Amino acid sequence: MNTSTTVLPGQPAAIAPDVHWVGALDPDLRQFDIILRTANGTSYNAYAVRGRDGVAVIDTVKAEFADDFFARLWACCKPAEIRAIVLNHLEPDHTGALPALLAAAPDARVYLSSAALRMLKGIVKDGIDESRLTVVDADTRVDLGGRTLRFLHTPYLHWPDTQCTWVEEDGLLFSGDVFGCHFCDERLFNDRVGDFRFSFDYYYQHIMRPFREHVLEALALIEALPIRLIAPAHGPVLRDAPRNYVQRYRQLASPLLTFEAGEHEKTLLVFYISAYGNTERMARAVRDGAEGVEGVRVSLYDLAGGDPAPFVDLIEEADGLMFGSPTINGDAVKPVWDLLSSLTLVKVKGKFGAAFGSFGWSGEAVRLIEDRLRGLKLRVPRTGVRVKLIPTDEELAECRALGRELAEHLVGRAQPLHIDFSAPGALTT
Ligand code: FEO
């Protein structure tokens, strides 16, 4: 058996006494889940934890790497010894070898979250004996004999099903995607591999950041644990100063920006781009209208002069978002779409949104932006303002009203929407 700290083909790697890494290395991967670049490939980390009374297998690997996984697993235990199969996360990069493992260890119980239970049939298509399944909660204990597994409810890190597994006697946290990164290095441990900090932060930004509130809830659970080693589902095993990585998550999940607004102010960001100055005039009117609402800090940004990335940081912490775009060839313009497409990186659900814009003959941009905002689950309380070419004074007043109304929503002073059901289709405010 491999007792060195370098992963060898077909050999498990000890990460603690009677605890082995039985995962797979994928050094050639250059793109993960379509959206992530992986300059150093990745690893699919799975683990075997032995107690006096049997073995628990924690997660598996992507299907193409099942042979690597089973070679390592059978080198450190027999199928009949497996008492528990723990599913921290059902994404296929961790469950590709699950059907074969279920078949190879028919007496093993499967421990998973309630959300995972609802997903499992979509993953194990050839059926599963439901009498083998145990849905865990914070009180569940799996006693392996001298080693006890507990479970932390950490949903949305990175799917609704995700959980962490804690071995309390040894201070081992099997964290799933949390504290992982796409960084393949056969030296396995964080104190031996190359510098992977860029990948750790990149992984957080692209996988965890949209679920920042859930990250903070999970950190409250994890920070209370006397952790001695973190075994994530991707990347290096964190045996040296593991709490530093927990602290780094705390930093990454905390507000990024100096808080420019007062403690009790709401923030409204108005983004625009303008071909002939008409949408810009509308944007300034929107801002003027919003500024008249006490308790709202209003900012105005011309997308012609900015890269989306810093705006995404602003948006993450804002309360309201407004977008102004001309219509060109029946669409909003590319800088607006570039920013809107970046919003999947952060949580925008529940923020207030609105759109406005000048147009020449068709004017679809406002509706298309509104559709996108609703698709991202922003609240769009009123129809935006569309102006044919040069805005009149009356139309600029309408823009001011739009800004004022959205700002009033931010501070809870907007007039409630009344729907007269006696006049179908009629909406009055
Ligand atoms: Fe590594 Fe969300 O799967």
TrEMBL record:
PROSITE patterns xrefs: FLAVODOXIN, FLAVODOXIN_LIKE
InterPro entries per record: Flavodoxin/NO_synth, Flavodoxin_CS, Flavoprotein-like_sf, Metallo-B-lactamas, ODP_dom, RibonucZ/Hydroxyglut_hydro, Rubredoxin-O_OxRdtase
KW Translocase (keyword) present: no
Keywords annotated in UniProt: Flavoprotein, FMN
Gene3D superfamilies: 3.40.50.360, Ribonuclease Z/Hydroxyacylglutathione hydrolase-like
Presence of the UniProt keyword Flavoprotein in the record: yes
SUPFAM superfamilies in the cross-refs: Flavoproteins, Metallo-hydrolase/oxidoreductase
Names of required cofactors: FMN
Molecular function in Gene Ontology: electron transfer activity; FMN binding; metal ion binding; oxidoreductase activity
Name of protein: FprA family A-type flavoprotein
Lineage: Bacteria, Pseudomonadati, Pseudomonadota, Betaproteobacteria, Rhodocyclales
